[in-house]
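Form 7-S
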Amino acid sequence: MWNLKLFRALGAVLLCAALAAQDPDAPEPRPELLPGEALAMSVDEKPARFFGEAAREHPMGSLAKLVWIRLEGEEWASAGVEFKCTGSDGTHSCWLKKGHGRVDVGKALRESCNLAFLSWAKLSATEWKKYIGEGAGRLHLEEGFRPFLGGRMPPGEQIPPMSLEWVGDGELLRTSPEGMLQWLMDPVQATLIATCRRHLTVKIGRDESWWIKTGTAPVPGEPGATSAWVAGGNGQVLAVFHMPRGRGKVEGMERFVKLMGIR
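Output:
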């Protein structure tokens, strides 16, 4: 469970950014980023602002689950899929060793359960083969993940085997704060944003509600190291932050709050 003070601090700083954007005489916020950090932000759907190395790509980690929600989330939800995560499934392991227990789509998204998303991705791949054919299924997958593949789609004419790389555990899927923000800002993501609000919303103060998706991703060339991602919005502000070589989700969120000047 996230620290409530942390979310209040996040709400306060982004609200200040929103007010500054509305006031032409207000100074533009310039966060003091550490080397490699990056922030992308948009207020009231206005052109995005970028800070730090916002165009630099990194493995997208848990943010890949948002792409699956966009691609198949409605189908999974309507089918009422569930999964019992025990922490391992054959040769695959979830990031939480003890497992997440029984999860539905909403809980799996909130708790970022790798094994649940992998299980449902495999289910979708099987359904594609059965109902629309191998080639069309591959095209469906490629089109959904195109912004994050960068030409790294495994070769062939068939649907590639679903592995943990397809849910963000690896270097196959990559993005940048700039790229992820632009993707989230696309009007076609309206259903995804609605799903995020439904399952990832946290109350900030008495009146503000934000959806927040945090995650970690591997750092290329540094076995065992992770980077941190934070993406969120409240209907007015939409922001994506990346912190390299972070130790996890909490550290990423804490660093985000600090770089925005929270004390």
